[in-house]
Model the fold of this input.
Amino acid sequence: MRFDDLGLKPELLRALSEQGYTDPTPIQAQAIPPALEGRDLLAAAQTGTGKTAAFGLPLLQRLAAMPRAQGEKRPRALILTPTRELALQVDESLRAYGAQLRLRTAVIFGGVGMQPQIEALRRGVDIVVACPGRLLDHMSQRTVDLSGIAILVLDEADRMLDMGFLRDMRRILGALPRQNRQTLLFSATFPDPIRTLAQEFMRDPVSVEVAARNSIAATVAHRVHPVDAARKRDLLLELLARDSRRQTLVFARTKHGSDKLARFLEASGLNCAVIHGNKSQNARIRALSDFKAGRATVMIATDIAARGIDIDQLPVVINFELPMVPEDYVHRIGRTGRAGAEGMAISLVSAEESGQLRDIQRVIGRAIEQEVVAGFEPSQPLRLDGRGGSAPSQRGSGARTAQSQPARRGAPAPRGHGRPSHAGKPHGQAGAGDREASNAAHATPGNERRPGGQRRRRRPNRATN
Done:
């Protein structure tokens, strides 16, 4: 199947062709036809499967076909996203796809002042891409009029739930017109609160599922380097120095740890960019631009800040520290192995992280190959048997071992693999500021702050689609 077979307008097909896209991904092939018909859509889609085009192309086509009254300035489509980076990515993709359609967009999120957004809304826009907290601020100040919204997209709804935005989502949905509104909900998982939300605010939605929860690209190779925690920085430097020109995304667990790691690598002669919640929006955009342009060969990021980063041909992702939530491993490594390209996901794992590695292997449904790097032999092996006893011994320095992982009773069985993304490429541009910045600035993967300041412990979401 090709995009020509989906009933898209010539203007959209030309824009896709100019970007080199001819064949839709599975989520695009299944989601675009019912979305073009105006049906509500409940879609299971992982990061990296091309979901932005799956909702963006039909949204643009339907808006272009809707008559707009002379002088009408109210937005007609609203896209809610969990983070500012994803909002920027979505906005840039829409601009690329709709370059020939004369539709106007505005981005609403935290990190900078509100006034530029207020002025953009006053001039009139067709599409608003927003994070929930700042959108509510605009609503409370009456600087945005959502009474004309005909199409609503909830992008990565499960992540918005994880970040504590359920109440905000309900308030926004409750303020939108219900009659003749089309709602497209995209989520990697469908926990009960998301299903309840769908039942309450959607009309007979078409269900689309093309990749199982926690599926990973088949083109990504996985490897674990066992190492003592005190020697992780030196091992990371050793791995990066093997090819100092290679673009590498490194995940750390905390904002402070990211800055400290960047200072260490820069003192060793590597050019680093850092992105986390304490960075201003302009600093984050500049860091991402430097990394994409090759001015920085290493990007160090935290989980929340990295959400929405989309970089073509990224060869390597390194987990300097394993995530506390095992599902976040899938989101991290989804940054490599895209568009059919080969990728490598490397994790530096200390004995203290054995339990986290065990949970990750259960989530992805496979054991990860281990390789001890010569000169960095750990003082104790990783314990993956789940009993705290001796783990299977590793072979000598530099040898690789694959350790099997006993399945937990009642654990959901992973199903299938995802499809690399063919969605558009963000260039990054400024938006406006709000509580998303506060959420990211005060959150760590295991201890996130709800909007409004209330802390909650984050637990892995075990619901299946």
